Amino acid sequence: MRVFSGSLATETNTFSPLPTGLAAFKECAYFPAGQHPDELNMFAAPLWAARLRGKDKGWDLAEGLVAIAQPGGTTTRHAYETLRDELLADLRAALPVNMVLLGLHGAMVADGYDDCEGDLLGRVRTIVGPDVVVGAELDPHSHLTPMMVAKADLLVAFKEYPHTDALERGLELVDLCAAMVAGRIRPVAAVVDCEMIVVVHTSRQPGRGFVDRIQSLEGKDGVLSISVAHGFPWGDVAEMGTKVLVYTNGEAAKANALARQLADELVALREALVVRYPDIDASLDEALAFADGPVVLADGADNPGGGAAGDSTFILQRMLERGIANAAIGPLWDPIAVRLAFAAGIGVRLTLRIGGKISPMSGAPLDLECTVKALKADMWMTGLGDTRVAMGDCALVENQGIDIVLVTLRSQAYGTDLFTQLDCDLAAKKIVVVKSSQHFYAAFSKVAAQVIYTAAPGTVTLDVTALQYRRARRPKWPLDV
Questions:
Q1: How far apart are CA 3 and CA 423, in angstroms?
Q2: Which phi and psi angles does 196 have, rounded to 5°?
Q3: Backbone phi, then psi, for 229, in 5-degree steps?
Q4: Which residues pair with 17 in a beta bridge?
Q5: What residues are paired with 216 via a beta bridge?
């Protein structure tokens, strides 16, 4: 069997001040056709899964472009069209194929394209025709548009949040697509819009139980696959919102009924799915009152994984004002401060203007007398599923008992080695602030005595009712109650 696989993925925060251009892809992950390395990348999981399955089955695998950018603001038209056309050219060069497997995000927005994935899938379908199986893996924080569903034979989203199951879902996609090529299944899709915005943390109930329930239904009674698209609230497009996608084996009525049933169940859980978000001072009070440590505070509003800059100072400034010591915070994106720390050297004390550089949602820059405690060039952090995340040159500096991890490449906190590679002892800290919404949980929950999701200002504000939507279809809970 002749198989083609490639990836084009980023998550677009239309409220972010950071344009996503070609450089953002080339800085994060850009591998031309046939050059993807021998390691798993989350949004290239279908390619990796095709390698694994194809090796045993003797498939002829053509590997196309893999291009992935850190989440940011609207992708430029030039970047999207350039990368899209490169991927499509790779596909044309690989023809004829029996199966196309794509690693996408589902919430990519570019100038002139509110639905990049729908546009890409539509062009893929035009190239390969109606008889070639086309499948894609998605992030659950996707918009799941009608065009995406119509142009793909199968869409499979990660189920876990944190997204620890990219490879498992990639294998699921590959196996279902191969079964379709072999004529063993005939997937039919049903989508139900829940008319709400929720995120489903699988690290706690009731999200954990709901995902376990949908997985128990798959592979039985003709149910092939079930995905929940949480939606991406910071993408102001018409199709934003939570949806349920069900595929059954040729039984449209069953797919529609099950999608409706599961959507109703999810709607009934919506109040319980909302995470408690105390404000900065309340979060700090809770952390200080907690008997043990470290207490991890998640600064989700400044999460680079949601399109924020990762340079906000709101929590750091308040800790300094309150005289809170024995704490750590990171990763804080500040390439200039990193350069100055490297120039000064370990052990040197110098004044650094830290953070607050990109927009009002970054807070004010802080002028701090810092001691350079550690430096590491070209540092990598452990990501989800033991993937690697580039951080560039990194510095650990200290002011008033607070260790600050400064990074050159913008990224959210995934692994605890973000700190420990710089000899920051997390176990000895009372408070650890991480720039992440939820992906930090997979690693940091193993060392945290308590986790608090903190409501700070930022581009990925946790209060979605404060966002000025202009294009999202309404009504939608909790915007309209």
A1: 45
A2: -155, 175
A3: -90, 105
A4: none
A5: none
